[in-house]
Structure formats: structure tokens, C-alpha cells
């Protein structure tokens, strides 16, 4: 499995997403409460661009007649037919044991791994007998 740098942490604030291309695959990268998750950008139902769907929460079990809204920002809804998937696991909300979308491992690494475009070249400096010396 190869490593692929797909952006900087600051480019994707919590609640945001980005669709990237990696080795010919379209992948949705999501920041859910400061943690990054990646899903295949294809709904297992009819191959819709899943990661372009709305990101919501869901109702959770509660007392009879009571609705509890929870998991805001963790549920992805397919833009074509409304199938819902857990962004954290890729599992279907309505049938988690039989339907899921492929998920990928995501890590956050130091910015130096992504490139040097925000850096300027530096040179060693020393002080010798009261003189500042730049070494090129």
C-alpha cells in the first residue's frame, strides 16, 4: 500500500470534505470532529458520486414517542437515492451487516511530507569573534 499526500490539515477544517483522485480512484476525504476519514466515492447501490451527498446526523433510539438527534456530521447521504452511510466505518445505516462502502486508512503527517512551497531557503549562520557569518 503506497502513501499519497492529498493535502494539508488546514485545508480541510472540521465538517468539511474534499474529493481527491488516488491511483485512478475517486475518494472522499472528510474531517469529522478533527479526525480524518476516507471513503470510496461510489455508492454501492448504483455507483452515484456518494461523497458529494449531504452530511447529516441521524435519529437514535429513545423512549417511545421520543426522537433523539445525534451523530451530527457523521452520516453521509447518497445524492441520488438517499442511502445513508456511517462516515466513520463505511457501513450502511439501514443494513450495516450487508451493505458498506469501501473506507481507507488516513493519517496526518508533518507538513514537510507535502512539499516545500511555503518555505524559504535557509542558510547556516554562526558568530565568530563578534562577526555574523552566513555559510553558503
TrEMBL record:
Instruction: List the InterPro entries hit by this protein, alphabetically.
Output: Rieske_2Fe-2S, Rieske_2Fe-2S_sf
Q: Which PANTHER family would you find in this protein's record?
A: 3-PHENYLPROPIONATE_CINNAMIC ACID DIOXYGENASE FERREDOXIN SUBUNIT, FERREDOXIN-RELATED
The organism's superkingdom is given as Bacteria
> What CDD domains does the entry give?
Rieske
Q: Which GO terms describe its molecular function?
A: 2 iron, 2 sulfur cluster binding; metal ion binding; monooxygenase activity; oxidoreductase activity, acting on paired donors, with incorporation or reduction of molecular oxygen
The alphabetical list of record keywords is:
2Fe-2S, Iron, Iron-sulfur, Metal-binding
Q: Which Pfam families match?
A: Rieske
Residue ranges of every copy of the Rieske domain listed in the record: 4-115
Name of the featured protein: Rieske 2Fe-2S domain-containing protein
Amino acid at each position: 500500500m503506497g502513501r499519497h499526500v492529498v493535502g494539508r490539515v488546514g485545508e480541510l477544517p472540521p465538517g468539511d470534505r474534499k474529493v481527491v483522485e488516488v491511483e485512478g480512484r475517486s475518494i472522499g476525504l472528510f474531517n469529522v470532529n478533527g479526525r480524518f476519514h476516507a471513503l470510496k466515492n461510489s455508492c454501492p447501490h448504483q455507483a452515484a458520486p456518494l461523497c458529494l451527498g449531504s452530511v447529516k446526523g441521524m435519529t437514535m433510539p429513545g423512549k417511545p414517542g421520543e426522537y433523539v438527534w445525534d451523530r451530527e456530521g457523521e452520516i453521509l447521504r447518497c445524492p441520488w437515492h438517499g442511502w445513508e452511510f456511517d462516515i466513520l466505518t463505511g457501513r450502511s445505516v439501514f443494513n450495516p451487516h450487508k451493505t458498506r462502502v469501501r473506507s481507507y486508512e488516513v493519517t496526518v503527517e508533518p507538513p514537510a511530507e507535502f512539499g516545500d512551497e511555503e518555505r524559504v531557503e535557509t542558510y547556516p549562520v554562526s558568530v565568530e569573534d563578534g562577526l555574523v557569518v552566513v555559510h553558503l
